[in-house]
Amino acid sequence: MYTHRSAICLTRLTSALQKITINHGRSECSTSNLKKGIVVGAYVDEKGENIKLTNSAEKVNQDSNNVIMKALKIGNGFLKKGKSRVFYNANEKYGTIALVGIGKEELDEKDFSDGVDPKKQNVRNAAAIGCRSLIDCGMEDIDLSSMGDSESAAEGAMLGTWNFQEYKKEQKPSPKISLFENSDKDEWSRGVVKSNAQNWSRKLTESAANHMTPTLFSKEVEEVLGNQNVQVVVHDKCWAEEKKMGGLLNVAKGSCQPLAFLEMTYSGGSKDDKPIVLVGKGVTFDSGGISIKPSSAMGEMRADMMGAANVVSAISAIAELQIPVNVVGLTPLCENMPSSSALKPGDVIVAMNGKSIQVDNTDAEGRLILADALCYAATFNPKLTLDLATLTGAMMVAIGGAATGVFSTADKIWNDVQCAGNYTGDRMWRFPLWNYYSALLSGYSGFDLDNIGKGKGGGACTAAAFLKEFAPPGDWVHMDIAGVMKSNGQDSSYISSGMSGQPTRALVQFILDISKQSS
Ligand code: BES
Ligand code: MN
Ligand code: ZN
Fold first, then answer.
1. What's the confidence (pLDDT) of residue 18?
2. Least CB-packed of 129, 260, 344, 498 within 10 Å?
3. For residue 18, what are the contacts with CB-CB under 8 A and spacing of at least 6?
4. What is the mean pLDDT of the chain?
């Protein structure tokens, strides 16, 4: 038996397999397609000693002369949750079989108190680990067992095997991954659509800032959404001037890269259905401006447009799934740079709604561009406005990479967001929108608002309170996604390290749930 992590050069091994047959203590078996593999699962207890194959795994085991069970019984034949065992040349149809430990079949109440559905997370992780181990073995065509939840299996596979290789001279091809069982195909497709959307967000955010300027971002969105029954309008600086978008214009003016403001319209609902407006922060690079950031890890600020990336990605999935809702997406896009034309600390600017703002810190730029975007959102008379932004480093201080920080004016909407996140594995945690924080931003004699305010601490809450000054009437939700910008590598190991694209799938799920409620 060869295990996935054994120190064998796998490419060499696969070619060697064409010449030799590995004997697993049974009669030899010649496989027709050495590049085709299969991932099946087994329920395992915490110690990894009690192993129960899923029905599909049992079927594959029987078709392979019982090789899986025999191997698990010999030596230290245990299998832990999230680990895989790989079997070569044991099956007529598959060159390689990966068996992966899913976790407990029956979960306890306490397993469900961690903010994400553990059953779904287990399947996502198992799918990702199984597929990765087969890719390591050189498999190009993978059948993946649903392990009881084909949507989660698709998500684990698509998210877990994705990697960013845009700038590599030689790029590794992605394997073809298909559902093994002949059931739950709709759920599988939904999982594929949602994860492809998230991967698009990961691609947009991971891209280097010189390859993802406001102009290049807009071009890519026009290309992708333009083919998807979504109307895309790219507004420019003149338009922003007409609208008196002082926040966006002033942040953008420090860079020679022109600003852009995307307006996307998806009309899946009936004509008189009020739209859901999604707003995403699109700072394609945040140097901090004149209040410049420390240089270490500044490069990560290429992902300061993850709010915008999540919005466009979610809209692409909503359109592909043909969800019966009307959605408008708005993304203000610009760079935040220091230069002789840049905004200076102490400058006073005026947002679209006429409120004056003293810019105490040019690094608190997200709220300035979102202020205008939220004012513009109001012109659509939205049923609900939801914004996403990598807004504050304070999010990371408060709860680390565990969750998206959610600020909501309505309990019901918070509840729906939390349910959607629980379902998709994107943990949500609610923060307060108290007047306590609003008071810290106002009460100055010379201008209406200060962009950082008085008081210490609670940075994510003061930022949210700032946005509240500009939010449209009606229900409004703000998501601070700074903490989840990068994969936390913990409970979501199916999302490999790098920019996470979270919580794109939760956003899609949330809108899918809403569409079911109103129909
Ligand atoms: N884009 C940053 C927030 C951020 C930091 C996101 C780290 C992801 C990782 C935002 O524009 C910013 O700089 N916020 C300041 C606000 C402060 C000046 C009040 C911050 O968090 O330090
Ligand atoms: Mn900043
Ligand atoms: Zn920023």
1. 36
2. 344
3. 34
4. 93
CATH for the 194-518 domain, from 3.40.630.10, 1.10.760.10, 3.40.630.30, 3.40.50.410: 3.40.630.10
- The second-level CATH assignment, the architecture, of 5-161 is 3-Layer(aba) Sandwich (3.40)
Q: Taking 70 as the threshold, does the pLDDT of residue 118 lie above it?
A: yes
Q: How is residue 178 written in tokens?
A: 């298909």
| Closest listed residue to residue 276, CA positions, set 249, 315, 246, 224 | 315
Phi first, then psi: give them for residue 349, nearest 5 degrees.
-125, 170
CA dist 232 → 57, 107, 219, 242 (Å): 46, 45, 10, 19
- Tell me the residue type at 394: A
> How many CA atoms lie within 13 Å of 308's alpha carbon, on the beta-carbon side?
32
CA of 365 to the centre of ligand 2 (A): 5
Closest ligand to 450 CA? 1
Residues with CB under 6 A from ligand 1: 286, 304, 361, 363-366, 390-394, 452, 459, 482, 485
**What confidence tens digit (pLDDT) does each residue in 345-396 have?**
999 999 999 999 999 999 999 999 999 999 999 999 999 999 999 999 999 9
* Cis before 275 (ω within 30): no
482 membership: H or E segment, kind and range: none
Residue-wise DSSP of 76-137:
S----BT-EEEEES-SSS-SEEEEEEEE-SS--GGGG-SSS-HHHHHHHHHHHHHHHHHHHT
| Contacts for 119 with CB less than 8 Å, ≥ 6 apart | 107, 149, 152
Q: Where are the domains of the chain?
A: 5-161, 194-518
**pTM > 0.90:** yes
Cα–Cα distance between 368 and 442 in angstroms, integer? 15
Mean pLDDT of the region 127-139: 97
Burial class (CB in 10 A: 0-12, 13-18, 19+), 267: middle
Q: How many angstroms does the Cα of residue 363 sit away from the middle of ligand 1?
A: 7
pLDDT in the model for residue 446 = 96
Question: Which of 298, 391, 452 most suits a substitution to test ligand 1, by most atoms within 8 Å of the C-beta?
Answer: 391
384-389/475-480 β-pairing = parallel
